[in-house]
Specification:
Helix content is about 30%, strand content about 25%. By secondary structure, it is α/β, with parallel strands linked by helices. The structure holds pyridoxal-5'-phosphate and lysine. Belongs to the Orn/Lys/Arg decarboxylase class-II family. LysA subfamily.
Length: about 425
């Protein structure tokens, strides 16, 4: 459920016609709905009510300060993967004490920064990283709270690029070697072993892989207790999928129910790291049809958004729903390949879409709130899109469209 619906024949973001947003801020523009973000965050929070838990929104999905701020006001925690993401969380009013630090390549500078800010926990992904955090914490006279991210070797049944819990993936430590690594961690100075972490992949559409992974991780926690290592929290990661086309992912409540069934009588605080399920359907990308071009093979709708604005179709061949901002009855439907202006054959947003459109019309690419703007680039020297947030009838510009001058502001030519 989201708040991008048609009223009569015009698409609205909450109470604002998206055509008004195009008139005010131009296109391409990302539009976020505050009500949808809040609703989705609360769905997770309420689904785990009655057991100690912390919803740590995965910042990589959408890191706009306004998005983070809306969630911080609800009391959200955050899952970060860089010093840059931590700086964003803090700038948006989030708390380091409610933030966990994931990722396979944390640098010394990032570890120092996170320790100075009193990060809630490092999700450690290798033995070398354990050593590094121990050294940095000891040097700073700090104790670093750590979890080890274990790789339970379960198949998340998702796109191979976003599956992370298999033995062949670069993430985490094999669950069989985890007891030894935990014992080593318990001996290292400057470390405080507090948790276990597990994230098996993204855009999962069934609960079975989550449940499977949970059983394996709980068995590890039992083994650790036998070794006198007491685990206080379990981070079950993110990964719950959303509907882009015809997927039927479990709701946060169904996901939580399945996890709760397995977690009964466990004295553990549960951390969650949902990204897509909170932000995905809270955003659309608004774009305009520049040209319609008919060749022998295809009819193309060439739009002013491209793979640099929204990479998912080009990178994963993802299907994103594309709808007109105004439903027209004066045109016949045609089949279009919806493509951007970037000089790559892979620059498409959707293929073989039936649409009633003409040049100049506005289109909305739905479910673009997660891994949309955050994965955008300046390829082909294209300024990145503006971002706006709608709150009822109010419209807020939350990131200006980039200027062309800003694209090369940090560059220098040789002096001779
Ligand atoms: C460690 C970690 N946590 C959380 C997430 C968020 O995943 P999702 O957006 O699928 O909920 C990811 C991305 O897959 C991740 O790598
Ligand atoms: N970027 C991916 C998800 C990757 C998840 C990051 N761990 C997507 O757009 O679907």
């Amino acid at each position: 459920m989201d708040f991008f619906q048609y009223q009569q024949d015009s698409l609205r973001a909450e109470d604002v016609p998206v055509s008004d947003i195009a008139a005010q801020y131009g296109t391409p523009t990302y539009i976020y709905s505050r009500a949808t973000l809040e609703r989705h965050w609360r769905a997770f929070d309420e689904a785990f009510s009655g057991m100690p838990h912390l919803v740590c929104y995965a910042v990589k999905a959408n890191s706009n300060l306004a998005v983070l701020n809306v969630l911080a006001r609800l009391g959200s925690g955050f899952d970060i993967v860089s010093g840059g993401e931590l700086a964003r969380v803090l700038a948006a009013g989030g708390k380091a004490e409610r933030t966990v630090f994931s990722g396979v390549g944390k640098t010394t500078d990032e570890i120092e920064y996170a320790l100075e800010q009193n990060i809630r926990c490092f999700n450690v992904e290798s033995e070398s990283e354990l050593q590094r955090i121990s050294e940095v914490a000891s040097r700073l006279g700090k104790s670093a709270p750590i979890s080890i991210r274990v790789n339970p070797d379960v198949d998340a049944q998702t796109h191979p690029y976003i599956s992370t819990g298999l033995k062949e993936n670069k993430f985490g430590i094999a669950i069989e070697s985890a007891p030894d690594v935990y014992q080593a961690a318990a001996q290292l100075p400057g470390l405080n072993v507090v948790g276990v972490d597990c994230h098996i992949g993204s855009q999962l559409t069934t609960v079975a892989p989550f449940v499977d992974a949970l059983h394996r991780v709980l068995a590890l926690i039992d083994r650790l207790a036998e070794l006198d290592i007491q685990i206080k929290h379990l981070d079950i990661g993110g990964g719950l999928g959303i509907r882009y086309k015809d997927e039927t992912p479990p709701s946060p409540a169904e996901y939580a129910a399945a996890m709760r069934d397995v977690l009964t009588d466990r004295n553990l605080e549960i951390f969650l790291e949902p990204g897509r399920a909170i932000a995905g359907n809270a955003g659309i990308l608004l774009t305009r049809v520049e040209y319609i071009k008919t060749t022998e093979a295809h009819r193309f709708a060439i739009i002013d958004a491209a793979m640099n604005d929204l990479l998912r179709p080009a990178l994963y061949q993802s299907w994103m729903e594309i709808v007109p901002a105004k439903l027209r009855s004066d045109l016949v439907a045609e089949i279009y390949d919806v493509v951007g202006p970037v000089c790559e054959t892979g620059d498409f947003l959707g293929k073989q879409r039936e649409l009633k459109i003409a040049e100049g019309d506005l289109l909305a690419i739905r479910s673009a709130g997660a891994y949309g703007f955050t994965m955008s680039s300046n390829y082909n020297s294209r300024p990145r899109a503006a971002e706006v947030m709608v709150d009822g009838a109010e419209l807020h510009l939350v990131r200006e469209r980039e200027s062309i001058a800003s694209l090369y502001a940090g560059e220098r030519v040789l002096q001779d």
